[in-house]
Design brief:
The chain folds into two domains: 147 residues, Rossmann fold, CATH 3.40.50; 173 residues, Response regulator (Rossmann fold, 3-Layer(aba) Sandwich). It has ten helices and 15 strands.
């Protein structure tokens, strides 16, 4: 007989079906499932921890979903939650089916993931299960009673990274490879361009889009085209660009997580998205009641939701000390509120003369 367990928020889930359901989902959707240990630090006295289920459209190697996954793992390590996940749920139909199966068979205390390529599917599933909080990366608004949204508001670290790249280029040509010209990507690229302008008003930024969220081969090819056009510093908004920078022995900025290990002599820094403040907000819903909130501000640098990785001065060509100081001073201005990075979500041009920005 299946054992029924009750979580701290009062939901039930069928423990004996959990592993079987996850395997069936993986087979049906082409994704991979995983479980994380409950940790135990926050569940003293045998109290059960809330179960948060991660549902991701791309493989976890894609940095955007990888950042969410990492934050959920950190909450496990701190004894705050139980966590299971499935990734590579790559179509809207698969996303809707997966969410419905997880909500029905496991009844988690919250479901978290990304909805950009499957907004309608996620919102439809959320409406069918109003007692379960849904919190998804999204470009749309929250919906009562249980659909919260968040996004990677990384304009602050993007500006700082732009300052670095502006100070490092010798050809005055910088390459950026992004996913597609949507608001969440545009505001990062545009903030990066403004950062370049602060340290090098003579620079040109070349912007290419691969029109998908995950295609490392296409991103690498786009980066190689920019290098051929004279770019000697790159910004890897998408996975695949760092490989091109390493082969050409050029400085590059990573994205979402510290990517220094991928090319220690080339990655000067990375934009960091710390999703843990967002996860903590979702955990509050999981242990209380569902809500429909815009959780985007939890990604701001002054909220601890974003940063840049430590500047790697050992890269090819080095990093001037005065440039490091400029970036550190600007970061302090962002943190103390004396500087606010502009948010511009308009689509950037393919070749940008930063002096005109």
């Amino acid at each position: 007989m299946a054992q029924i367990r009750r979580t701290s928020s009062g939901h039930h889930r069928l423990a004996a079906l959990a592993g079987t359901a996850a395997l069936l989902l993986a087979a049906a959707c082409g994704g991979e499932t995983g479980e994380e240990p409950s940790g135990g630090g926050g569940g003293g006295g045998g109290e059960e921890l809330p179960l948060i289920y991660g549902v991701f459209a791309t493989p976890l190697e894609e940095p955007w979903d990888g950042a969410i996954h990492s934050a959920l793992q950190s909450a496990v390590e701190d004894g705050q939650i139980e966590y299971k996940h499935i990734d590579n749920v790559s179509t809207s139909d698969a996303m809707e089916r997966t969410l419905r199966d997880i909500a029905t068979n496991e009844q988690p205390d919250a479901i978290m993931g990304d909805a950009f390529a499957a907004e309608e599917a996620v919102r439809k599933a959320a409406a069918e299960f109003p007692d379960i909080p849904f919190a998804f990366g999204s470009g749309e608004k929250p919906v009562d009673p249980n659909m919260s949204v968040f996004d990677n508001w990384l304009q602050d670290p993007a500006y700082l990274a732009g300052m670095l790249c502006g100070g490092l280029t010798k050809s005055n040509i910088i390459g950026v490879v992004g996913a597609m010209p949507i608001p969440e990507v545009n505001r990062i690229v545009n903030a990066f361009v403004l950062g370049v302008k602060e340290t090098n008003p003579d620079a040109t930024v070349k912007v290419s889009f691969i029109n998908t969220f995950f295609d490392p081969a296409a991103a690498k090819q786009a980066a190689q085209a920019q290098i051929s056009a004279g770019a000697d510093v790159l910004f890897a908004e998408r996975d695949g660009v760092i490989s091109a920078a390493e082969e050409a022995n050029l400085p590059v900025v990573g994205m979402m997580v510290d990517q220094k290990e991928e090319a220690p002599k080339n990655v000067v820094t990375s934009l960091l998205w710390n999703v843990r403040p967002t996860v903590d907000a979702v955990t509050e819903q999981a242990t209380g009641k569902p809500a429909s909130e815009d959780l985007g501000t939890y990604s701001f640098m002054k909220e601890g939701g974003s940063d840049i990785a430590p500047i790697n001065t050992d890269i090819v060509g080095g990093v001037p000390d005065d440039l490091v100081r400029q970036v550190e001073d600007k970061k302090q201005e962002i943190l103390d509120g004396s500087f606010t990075t502009p948010v511009d979500e308009s689509a950037p041009k393919g070749s940008i003369d930063v002096s005109q920005q």
